[in-house]
Amino acid sequence: MLKKGFSVIAATLALAAAVPGHADEAADASANALLYAVAWKQTAAEYRALYHQGYNIARDRVDAALAARKDGDKPLAVLTDMDDTVLLPLPYWSKLTGEGKAFFDDPIWDAWVPQNDLVIAPGAKEFFEYCKEKGVEVFYITSRDQGEKTYEYALGNLKALGLPYADEEHLTVLTDSSNKEPRQQELAEKFTPVVYLGDNLNDFQRKYYIKGDVAGRIAAMEADREEFGRRFVILPNPTDGHWMAAVFGESEPADTPEARAKLVEAAKTVLR
Predict the structure, then answer these.
(1) Based on the structure, what is the number of domains in the chain?
(2) Which domain covers residue 200, as residue numbers?
(3) Cβ atoms < 10 Å from Cβ of 209
(4) Per the domain annotation, does 94 fall within a domain?
(5) Are 120 and 55 in contact, with CB atoms under 8 Å apart?
(6) Which pLDDT score, from 0 to 100, does residue 12 have?
(7) Which parts of the chain register pLDDT below 50?
(8) pLDDT for residue 31
(9) Is the residue at 253 inside a domain?
């Protein structure tokens, strides 16, 4: 059942649109739909606690797999996304909101990635170092495209933060697709995946990449509810990701009046 209710963000956007000439001023901070999400990422202890919680769960899964392992079993592995899972692009979002941008901006992102100005997710480095100590391999799988140096940049990001397994054997970069499942299946032939880490349901299975259907995507997730906290560990990301494709029909919509109207509707809609 759907019910309508105003959120603070929706009310702010609606007010901004009501002021003559205001709706067209993307740089006006009061109309910036990203402010609450980015402020939460930058300041909330809860945001960091969720990463610690996720990586603590992942460590428990690794310990359980190690305890259950028998001679002759395939080696164990952790399969992980990179952005907003291991590497937090918090300075990028600060730059974006500082420039009055209200939606993800590809040119700014592409220019920013090579700078290696990332923050490591709380608990991530300790967890991956623990995996290395225990002989559990870590494979990073990301979807990016910054041109011919995409792979070099991604590997540089990992190395800049001193992460273990930051090498070509353990990094996969998809430049023409966000579908990580084929690579995950390849790895599963040689390793036993202990846990999958991501900030996006599509980091786990392609079936969750559902466009233009919020309720349908939630239903697909609910069908797998037993997997979360067990095989899948999800990390928080309110600023971007494939959840936006369910709302807007695409993951990185342009900042248009139509996109803002869809955002207002999403903020007013409560699914029960």
Answers:
(1) 1
(2) 35-237
(3) 18
(4) yes
(5) no
(6) 40
(7) 1-27
(8) 67
(9) no
Structure token digits, residue 40: 């939460």
Letter string b/e over residues 177-196, b meaning 16 or more CB atoms within 10 A of that residue's CB: ebebbebbeebeeebebbbb
The neighbour count for residue 6, using CB atoms within 10 Å, is 12
Q: pLDDT at position 262, please? A: 93
pLDDT at 242: 94
Task: Specify the CATH number for the domain of residue 110.
Answer: 3.40.50.1000
- Does 257 map to a domain? no
Exposed, middle or buried by CB within 10 Å (0-12, 13-18, 19+), for 246? buried
Residue with tokens 């990094």: 171
Report the predicted TM-score, pTM, of the whole model to 2 decimal places.
Answer: 0.88
Query: Does residue 242 belong to any structural domain of this protein?
Result: no
Q: pLDDT per residue over 7-62, tens digit each? A: 334 434 343 443 334 344 444 555 688 999 999 999 999 999 999 999 999 999 99
The confidence score (pLDDT) of residue 272 equals 83
